[in-house]
Amino acid sequence: MTVNLYAANPLADAAREGDPAWYAAISAAVPAPKMFAGGTADLPAFTASGIDPQLLLRLPYGVRHAAAAEPNLAAAHTMFESYGNEPTAVVDHPGLQDAQDRVNAWWTSTDPDTRTPEQKQAAEDAAFAAYFGGDAQTARAAQLADRAAVVATNRQRTIDYNTWAAAVRQGSSPKSLRAVSG
Q1: Are residues 91 and 122 in the same domain?
Q2: What CA–CA distance (Å, rounded) separates 172 from 179?
Q3: 119: Cβ–Cβ under 8 A, 6 or more apart, which residues?
Q4: How many Å apart are CA 111 and CA 158, to the nearest integer?
Q5: How confident is the model at residue 137, as a pLDDT?
Q6: Phi/psi at 20 (5° precision)
Q7: Is the pTM of this model over 0.90?
Q8: Which of 32, 73, 94, 128 is the most exposed place for a label (fewest CB within 10 A)?
Q9: What one-character DSSP code corresponds to residue 44?
Q10: Could you read off the pLDDT of 4-41 as tens digits, one per residue?
Q11: Residue 112: which pLDDT band, with cuts at 50, 70 and 90?
């Protein structure tokens, strides 16, 4: 599928095409922002030149913000003549940049998990309890004890290695770490 650059919201359409599963997950939590009015509308309520906002859909999305903000009717008409048949045309405009930034922020920072913090904590507690057995507090203590054991083992390995390396530097040639530390 190719994104229709004359559609109402090609930025969101491009995101959907890029990763349909992620798009579905985050749009279920928060709808994709739209092109105008701070992300709440596909088109502006009015244009500076007085042209019908619906006519902006005859322009590629990259020109719409500039055309909507153009106060001179003749200059707005020129945009339609110049860019109407150029789907990839872009006229730099802060409104277009804002629309792109909104979609990017939505795409990269929306959490598709719509559970409340309490629901998330309860699910985490249940997962801990299922994995370690018992209640969540005991499960967390067991996980911390496991982590402490790993840290202690790694610390001992570092001491063993340092002892071995010192022996090698002093001219000994122990065959293994066990010969030095054991």
Answers
A1: no
A2: 11
A3: none
A4: 40
A5: 72
A6: -60, -35
A7: no
A8: 94
A9: -
A10: 999 999 999 999 999 999 999 999 999 999 999 999 99
A11: confident
* The total number of structural domains that make up the chain: 2
Domain shared by 123 and 72, yes or no: no
Please give the distance of CA 54 from its chain centroid, rounded to a whole number.
31
How would you write 100-163 as a 3-class SS string? HHHHHHHHHHCCCCCCCHHHHHHHHHHHHHHHHCCCHHHHHHHHHHHHHHHHHHHHHHHHHHHH
Question: Is-contact 6 57, C-beta < 8 A?
Answer: yes
Residues 105 and 121 grouped into a single domain: no
Q: Give the type of residue at 131.
A: Y
54 and 142 share one domain: no
Which range, 24-33, 64-73, 141-150, 163-172, is most confident? 64-73
Domain encompassing residue 48: 10-109
In this structure, the answer to whether residues 42 and 92 fall within a common structural domain is: yes
Assigned domain for 72 exists: yes
Could you report the per-residue pLDDT of 73-100, keeping only the tens digit for each?
Answer: 999 999 999 999 999 999 999 999 999 9
Please say which residue of 109, 133, 148 terminates a domain: 109
If asked whether residues 92 and 151 sit together in one domain, one would say no
